[in-house]
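Tokens for chain A. Residues wanted.
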């Protein structure tokens, strides 16, 4: 995992090269490359070897803006083992700064010899009209290289290292080790000694392999399809890659500026909870500091824990779905850990000039005030994490459009729906917020019982949003809801009072249940549509003219996958409705040529009153591609509602497309989307990897938690069991490594079997039935030894 090895051979010349490169697990920012040249011919050969790695040394923006001017800042130094580039300034017309970042290319051959010279200037190396693939210095065997100890200023740099010529007898080989290094404070140490030897390279490579193997070993699968099990190892590693790289700057991502977004943070944490749960509590706690008191949030995660930025492009906007994700991740954490006290931890709120969900600017705010919400005494205000979750859900409940669904604002999960801020509405995420409120109410019931609590403290202003406690609002009246929300916004516009009031948990539970159930009923009664061809499904959106998106239209039938996922997942859709939805999705959205279910049918217009997505070519990205994230969530939703066979087909169609390299043209794993030609794109960007891993662990293999106890609820279809009628998963629960093997001895269909017996390390254990699932007390797991992998045999019948 996570190293490259490529072999090239020119058979007519009898010469072969093998290139291995990787990023070692170390504190240095370094990439290592070993190049081995082998004589595969029958005669000896004289070889002259030169390596060339471009050194850009400044912002990628300067590729398009001030490229030559910024090159004038370059100071290039030739050293004994390579080339160093340290520009004098970091070029920024808002305020130039002294640069303290250095970039190096170093290299030695396998005998430990340094290069004999260097071509440090890019234009000298490639020559007039040349290029890096056709450089004049190599083609004409120029001897205008420079020696160590030279300083050259004001030119584009290249790390071109010329080595001493050598003779290779037939069958002989010679290796070179190169290091690419960048650091803000290059220490006074010999990086070449540390990295540029074959021995060091092999040691770092071995450690690298061990590191990544240990990571993917946290969750592994064994089914009847070994290729799928291996493919899932790559899916498992993807959330870690996104956490490291962020969403931007990778050449094939085309995602503009910025690092990790708010939604990414919470979705990646889903996978981390399954793989490396120990640091997740602190990560979640710190992340709640990005919530604003108006229910919105900062959208970009800073480089330090608890550090946030309002938006990557400085545009004041709100994605309406953002407030829903923290609860989903927190719920998973609590169910796997039993840590209900987490909800009572105190955390601050994010503060900047944006108020009223970014619809207004606080002219009195300044950067000196800071990015934390203050109270009237100018103290940093803190509320419980429960309070943060409540603010996120209660505020949006009143933020509705004319059809009484939650306003779309600057977009929902689909960033491409960014042109309907006035009258746009998102039905699917109305469903998600509604189901979240009902599930939060259930969690509070457990909190009341487990923690012997009767009330909680909340900011005085939040009681406005708990309307059923004091002054009930008529939820059918849009204007009344909007006015009520504005009343809350005004109360928290600049500061909060700092006063808190106790609220009975029973009252809070009733308020959440009333709001959540109202949403369920509202969507069922108003957004279920049937078309003239006899198909039925849920509408997803209203555009900026207030018109419904889906159903029969003069330009063709319109249907979205998003509009079906969340009503299914959130228990809005009834079982009969799910059957209708799957028929409609198979009719209008399924396309095996692109790996499964498209995000939407063609709208056949550039729909400027909904979003930029519909200016994209149909079948690309958010306009009708097989968008893996939503397709996986569709499969997950079907599993959750016990339509396992249909859920399996959704996941299986994506997998079969992705594993076929001639179609997908991608490394193993799941891409953000598959384009209209069948090619996978944006490989590390996607949150679908987290959701696919979550689906496999939680739904397919049924390794779940319920308030800290181990819950088993497998939904493996018959074809997933091997020849011995077994399927297994290795994963962690309560810090114990478990290999859970399901034995379906009578090979029953997925909805026909139940857990009959559980044996842990050869000893039968008791369990409690909980509807279709079974519960094993957490103590049974924590009593197991930490160090070893424990065998859990689950007999199904």
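Reply:
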């Amino acid at each position: 995992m996570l190293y490259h090895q490529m072999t090239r051979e020119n058979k007519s010349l009898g010469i072969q090269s093998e290139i291995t490169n990787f990023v070692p697990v170390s504190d240095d920012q370094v990439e290592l490359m070993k190049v081995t040249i082998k004589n595969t011919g029958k005669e000896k050969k004289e070889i002259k070897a030169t390596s060339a790695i471009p050194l850009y040394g400044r912002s990628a923006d300067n590729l398009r803006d001030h490229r030559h001017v910024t090159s004038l800042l370059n100071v290039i130094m030739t050293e004994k083992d390579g080339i160093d580039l340290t520009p004098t300034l970091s070029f920024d017309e808002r305020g130039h700064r002294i640069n303290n970042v250095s970039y190096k290319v170093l290299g030695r051959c396998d005998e430990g010899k340094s290069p004999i010279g260097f071509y440090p200037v890019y234009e000298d190396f490639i020559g007039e009209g040349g290029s890096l693939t056709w450089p004049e210095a190599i083609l004409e065997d120029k001897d205008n290289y420079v020696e160590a100890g030279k300083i050259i200023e004001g030119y584009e740099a290249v790390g071109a290292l010329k080595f001493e010529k050598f003779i290779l007898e037939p069958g002989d080989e010679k290796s070179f080790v190169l290091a690419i290094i960048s650091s803000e404070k290059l220490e006074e140490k010999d990086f070449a000694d540390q990295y540029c030897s074959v021995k060091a390279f092999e040691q770092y490579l071995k450690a690298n392999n061990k590191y990544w193997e240990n990571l993917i070993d946290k969750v592994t699968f064994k089914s009847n399809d070994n290729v799928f099990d291996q493919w899932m190892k790559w899916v498992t590693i993807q959330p870690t890659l996104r956490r490291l790289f962020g969403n931007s700057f990778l050449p094939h991502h085309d995602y503009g500026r910025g690092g990790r977004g708010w939604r990414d943070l919470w979705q990646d944490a889903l996978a981390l909870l399954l793989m490396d749960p120990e640091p997740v509590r602190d990560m979640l706690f710190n992340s709640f500091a990005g919530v604003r008191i108006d229910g919105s949030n900062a959208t970009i995660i800073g480089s330090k824990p608890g550090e946030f930025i309002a938006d990557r492009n400085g545009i004041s906007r709100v994605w309406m779905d953002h407030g829903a994700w923290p609860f989903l991740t927190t719920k998973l954490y609590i169910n796997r850990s039993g840590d209900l006290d987490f909800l009572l931890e105190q955390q601050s709120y994010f503060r900047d000039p944006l108020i009223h969900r970014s619809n207004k600017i606080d002219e009195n705010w300044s950067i000196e005030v800071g990015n934390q919400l203050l109270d009237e005494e100018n103290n940093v205000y803190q509320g419980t994490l429960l309070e943060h979750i409540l603010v996120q859900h209660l505020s949006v409940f009143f933020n509705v459009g004319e059809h009484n669904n939650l306003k779309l604002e600057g977009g929902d999960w689909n960033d491409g729906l960014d042109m309907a801020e006035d009258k746009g509405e998102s039905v699917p995420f109305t469903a998600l917020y509604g189901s979240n409120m009902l599930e939060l109410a259930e969690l509070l019931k457990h909190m009341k019982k487990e923690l012997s609590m009767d009330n909680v403290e909340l900011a005085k202003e939040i009681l406005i949003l708990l309307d059923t406690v004091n002054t009930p609002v008529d939820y059918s009246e849009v204007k009344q809801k909007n006015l009520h929300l504005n009343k809350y916004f005004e109360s928290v516009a600049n500061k909060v009072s700092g006063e808190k009031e106790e609220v009975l948990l029973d009252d809070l539970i009733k308020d959440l249940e009333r709001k959540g159930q109202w949403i369920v009923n509202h969507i069922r009664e108003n957004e279920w549509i049937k078309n003239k061809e006899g198909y039925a499904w849920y509408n997803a959106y209203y555009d900026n003219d207030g018109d419904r998106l889906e159903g029969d239209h003069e330009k063709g039938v319109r249907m979205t996958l998003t509009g079906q996922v969340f009503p299914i997942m959130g228990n809005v859709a009834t079982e009969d409705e799910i059957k209708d939805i799957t028929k409609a999705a198979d009719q209008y959205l399924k396309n095996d040529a692109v790996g499964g279910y498209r995000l939407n049918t063609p709208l056949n217009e550039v729909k400027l009153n909904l979003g930029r997505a519909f200016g994209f070519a149909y079948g690309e990205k958010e306009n009708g591609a097989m968008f893996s994230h939503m397709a996986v969530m569709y499969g997950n939703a079907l599993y959750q509602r016990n339509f396992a066979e249909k859920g399996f087909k959704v996941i299986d169609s994506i997998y079969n497309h992705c594993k076929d390299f001639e179609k997908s043209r991608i490394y193993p794993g799941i891409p953000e989307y598959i384009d209209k030609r069948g090619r996978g794109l944006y490989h590390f960007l996607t949150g679908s990897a987290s959701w696919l891993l979550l689906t496999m662990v939680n739904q397919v293999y049924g390794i779940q938690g319920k308030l800290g106890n181990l819950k088993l609820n497998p939904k493996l279809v018959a074809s997933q069991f091997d020849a011995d009628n077994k399927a297994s998963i290795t994963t962690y629960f309560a810090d114990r490594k478990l290999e859970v093997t399901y034995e379906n001895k009578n090979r029953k269909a997925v909805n026909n079997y139940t857990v009959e017996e559980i044996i842990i390390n050869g000893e039968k254990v008791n369990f409690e039935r909980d509807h279709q699932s079974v519960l094993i007390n957490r103590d049974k797991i924590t009593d197991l030894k930490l160090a070893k992998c424990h065998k859990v045999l689950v007999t199904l019948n």
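The mean pLDDT is 94. Residues 701-796 form a domain with the Maltose phosphorylase, domain 3 fold (CATH 2.60.420.10).
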